C-alpha cells in the first residue's frame, strides 16, 4: 500500500488567494509531503479556466525537482491530444533528468469541452489523437529514433537529444469511464482513476478493480498491479472536526468545478467516495479499499481554499496516524 498526494491547483478569482500565492503554497506542500514520506506528488494540467491554473505540469514539476530530493513527481495528467508528442516527450524527459529520475508520467485524453474548443480540436477525435500520441511518446522516451506517419503526427528520423534517466519511464493512463478500465488493462497500460467521477458508491470500486484486473489477466499480464486511485481526503481529530474544516472547502470546490457529476459534502459522505473523517474512520475506509485490491492511494487533500495549516495537519494525520494503523491491522509494511 502506497500513499501519494494530488492537487488540481483550483483557483478562485476575486477570493483570498492569488495565483502566485497558490504556486508558493503548492511548493511548500510538496516539501511537506516529502518530509512526511509520501510517495509521489501529482499536479493536474488544465487550460482556459480557473478549474486549474497549471497549464503545463512539467514547468511546476521542474521547480519541485529543485526543492525535493526523494519525492516522486507526477503529472495527473498530461493531456496528449492538445500537444505535439515530441514536445511532451522533451519536456518530461527534462523533468526526469532534473529530478534525478523521479518522474511518474500520467497521461490522458482530456474531458473538458472548453479545453477542446480552446485548442480548436474536435473532441470526437480525442481517442485517436491520444492513442497515436501515446505510441510516439513511449517510443521517444525509450530512446528510439522514430519515423512514422499518422493521422495527426509525422516524424521523420526523430530522436530526443535529452533522454530520461529512467528506463522505462513509468506511464499511467487516466480513466474516468469505468467501462474503459477493462480495455486499458487489456492494452497493458498502468491506470490512474478517480472513482468519485466514475461510480456512485464506494462498494462499486471493487468492480472497477476487478474489470481492470480481468483485462490485464487476459493480456497475460500480472493482475496484481492495480494502478493509482484518487480520493478527496481530509483527516481530522474527529468526524465533527473534519466537517468543520472540510465541508465549506469541498462544497466550494464542487460548486465551481466543471464536473458533469457533482456531490456536496453530505452527498460524498453518503456515497463514501471520499476519505473524510476521523483517523479511525479513514483507517477503516483504507482497509476496505485494500480488500478491494487497491494498493496505491492518491490523496486529493488541497482543495477549495482550505487553510494551508488544515491541509498540512491533515497530511500529517494521514501519513503518521492513518497509514501506520492500517499497516498494523494488515500486518504488512506500508510505503507512506
What keywords describe this structure?
globular, 8-stranded parallel β-barrel, alpha/beta, 11 strands, 18% strand, 336 residues, two-stranded antiparallel sheet
Short description:
The protein has helices at 19-36, 57-65, 85-98, 113-118, 126-141, 180-186, 205-218, 239-256, 265-271, 279-291, 308-330, and strands at 2-7, 40-43, 72-79, 103-108, 146-149, 154-158, 171-175, 190-193, 228-236, 275-278, 296-300. It has 336 residues and is α/β, with parallel strands linked by helices.
Helix content, binned percent: 40-55%
Q: Please trace the helix and strand order, writing H or E for each element.
A: EHEHEHEHHEEEHEHEHHEHEH
| Distance linking N and C termini | 8 Å
How much of the residues is beta strand, in percent? Answer: 15-25%
Number of helices: 11
- Which sheet architecture does the biggest sheet show? 8 strands, parallel, barrel
Tell the overall outline: globular
Structural class, from helix and strand content? alpha/beta
Number of strands: 11
For the CA atoms, what is the radius of gyration?
19 Å
Look at the structure and give the mean pLDDT: 94
- Give the strand line-up of the largest sheet: 1-2-3-4-7-8-9-11
Oligomeric assembly: single chain
| Unreliably modeled segments | none
Amino acid at each position: 500500500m502506497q500513499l501519494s498526494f494530488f492537487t488540481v491547483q483550483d483557483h478562485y478569482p476575486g477570493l483570498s488567494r492569488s495565483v502566485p500565492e497558490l504556486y508558493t503554497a503548492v511548493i511548500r506542500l510538496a516539501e511537506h509531503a516529502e518530509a512526511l514520506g509520501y510517495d509521489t506528488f501529482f499536479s493536474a494540467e488544465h487550460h482556459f479556466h480557473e478549474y486549474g491554473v497549471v497549464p503545463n505540469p512539467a514547468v511546476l514539476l521542474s521547480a519541485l525537482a529543485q526543492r525535493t530530493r526523494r519525492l516522486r513527481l507526477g503529472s495527473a495528467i498530461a493531456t496528449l491530444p492538445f500537444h505535439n508528442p515530441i514536445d511532451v516527450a522533451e519536456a518530461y524527459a527534462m523533468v526526469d533528468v532534473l529530478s534525478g529520475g523521479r518522474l511518474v508520467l500520467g497521461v490522458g485524453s482530456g474531458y473538458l469541452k472548453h479545453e477542446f474548443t480552446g485548442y480548436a480540436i474536435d473532441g470526437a477525435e480525442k481517442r485517436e489523437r491520444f492513442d497515436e500520441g501515446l505510441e510516439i511518446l513511449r517510443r521517444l522516451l525509450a530512446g528510439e529514433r522514430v519515423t512514422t506517419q499518422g493521422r495527426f503526427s509525422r516524424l521523420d528520423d526523430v530522436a530526443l537529444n535529452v533522454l530520461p534517466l529512467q528506463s522505462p519511464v513509468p506511464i499511467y493512463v487516466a480513466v474516468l469511464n469505468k467501462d474503459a478500465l477493462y480495455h486499458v488493462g487489456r492494452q497493458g497500460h498502468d491506470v490512474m482513476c478517480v472513482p468519485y467521477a466514475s461510480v456512485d458508491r464506494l462498494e462499486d470500486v471493487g468492480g472497477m478493480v476487478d474489470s481492470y484486473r480481468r483485462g490485464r489477466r487476459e493480456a497475460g499480464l500480472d493482475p496484481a498491479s492495480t494502478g493509482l486511485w484518487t480520493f478527496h481526503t481530509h483527516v481530522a481529530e474527529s468526524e465533527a472536526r473534519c466537517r468543520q474544516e472540510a465541508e465549506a472547502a469541498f462544497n466550494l470546490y464542487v460548486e465551481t468545478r466543471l464536473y458533469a457529476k457533482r456531490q456536496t459534502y453530505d452527498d460524498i459522505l453518503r456515497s463514501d467516495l471520499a476519505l473524510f473523517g476521523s483517523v479511525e474512520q479513514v483507517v477503516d475506509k483504507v482497509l476496505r479499499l485494500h480488500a478491494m485490491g487497491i494498493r496505491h492511494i492518491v490523496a486529493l487533500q488541497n482543495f477549495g481554499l482550505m487553510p494551508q495549516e488544515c491541509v498540512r495537519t491533515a497530511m500529517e494525520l494521514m501519513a503518521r496516524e492513518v497509514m501506520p494503523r492500517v499497516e498494523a491491522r494488515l500486518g504488512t509494511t506500508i510505503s507512506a
